[in-house]
Design brief:
about 350 residues; mainly alpha; two-stranded antiparallel ribbon; 12 helices
Length: about 350
């Protein structure tokens, strides 16, 4: 190992070349724990492991050759010859890349920029190409509630979701298995958000499948169409900040979901604000059979469950406001890096 390589490895670990092996191990463990808590990318942790392995091998080779300053001539009580004091060069700040999580610039700038772009595209002539995604999110709103109540559902981007009337153990166990895989992947990579997300959804699934009355479940499924345009699109936006396991390739995919989520949320939010102020009528009927279809979502809520026009408008507008407030809170937490406070408190002596 030449002097240049030695200085580079020492800089990564923040140690001096004459460090003892046990002190080197402690420095490595401390640095590794700090990187894990801060959510550093895998490349940075790999560099730390490589530097530790190289320095460890160098110290062992030096000790075997009788060149260890801590053990050579230990009984001679001879003063060490004066020499230059090594000062480790400053460790360069990590490069902030768009695919990185917990990057201050990405956390503060990416979401507003993509949101402005998505809104401009939605308001332009290109917004026509996004309407299919809006319809699909609406149908997934029906389907996700159906799945969590244990029913088979097939959401189609043509404005229709086929839902079975009976519960299916296959659906329940299948979703539970997927949540278990998500939890296990988060546990393996020591990422808490996937584990919390999976555990919370598993509890919600158990309640909706086994405890929710059948008529209430049907009401939620009908409500989930327009409701899904709010909470599913808000979920697509909010998950931008959360680091999921590497298998999901979420670092790049999250930008696509963010763009579609903002476009869908903006479309739904602006539409229901216009409904609230009387600029457009309530969207009775269905997309497939037109305004006269008595089996439309709002028609069913009104006829089967007694929802008044005022109640429908208030419910969806309040849901939109609540999702918008939650997104604003998430943005502030990550833009101001408040999510790092627990790790910083644990690192204090």
């Amino acid at each position: 190992m030449n002097d240049r390589e030695m200085q580079g490895y020492c800089a990564i670990l923040g140690v001096n070349p004459d460090i003892a092996p046990d002190e080197l191990k402690r420095a490595y463990l401390k640095k590794s724990y700090a990187l894990i808590q801060s959510g550093a990318p895998e490349e940075e942790r790999a560099r730390l492991r490589s530097a530790h392995a190289a320095l460890t091998a160098h110290l062992e080779a030096r000790t075997a050759a009788g060149d260890d300053p801590a053990g050579a001539d230990a009984g001679a009580n001879r003063p060490a010859a004066p020499g230059p004091v090594y000062t480790a060069p400053p460790v360069p700040a990590p490069i902030c890349r768009p695919l990185d999580f917990d990057c201050p610039v990405v956390n503060a700038v990416a979401v507003p920029l993509v949101a402005v772009l998505a809104i401009l595209v939605s308001r332009s002539g290109l917004g026509f190409f996004l309407e299919g995604f809006h319809v699909w999110v609406h149908e997934f709103g029906h389907a996700t509630v159906a799945w969590f109540t244990g029913k088979r559902a097939l959401p189609l981007p043509i404005g229709w979701t086929n839902i079975s009337p009976e519960k299916s153990n296959f659906v329940y166990l299948g979703i539970l298995a997927l949540l278990g895989l998500l939890f296990a992947a988060g546990w393996k990579e020591r990422k808490p958000w996937p584990m919390l997300f999976a555990a919370g959804l598993a509890v919600l699934q158990a309640y909706m499948t086994w405890l929710l009355p059948s008529e209430t479940a049907r009401e939620w499924i009908v409500f989930g169409g327009c409701g899904g345009q709010f909470y599913l699109s808000a979920l697509m936006i909010g998950l931008f900040y959360f680091d999921f396991p590497e298998k999901f390739k979420w670092g790049g995919c999250r930008y696509v979901f963010l763009f579609i989520g903002v476009s869908c949320f903006y479309d739904a939010y602006s539409f229901w604000r216009m409904v609230k102020y009387g600029r457009v009528p309530l969207p009775y009927g269905s997309m497939v059979n037109g305004e006269e279809d008595a089996n439309g979502d709002l028609d069913t809520l009104s006829a089967d469950f007694g929802w008044s026009d005022r109640h429908i408008i208030a419910t969806y507008t309040h849901l939109g406001d609540a999702c918008l407030a939650a997104l604003g809170l998430i943005y502030l937490v990550f833009a101001l890096r408040l999510n790092r406070l627990p790790a910083l408190i644990r690192q204090k002596p």
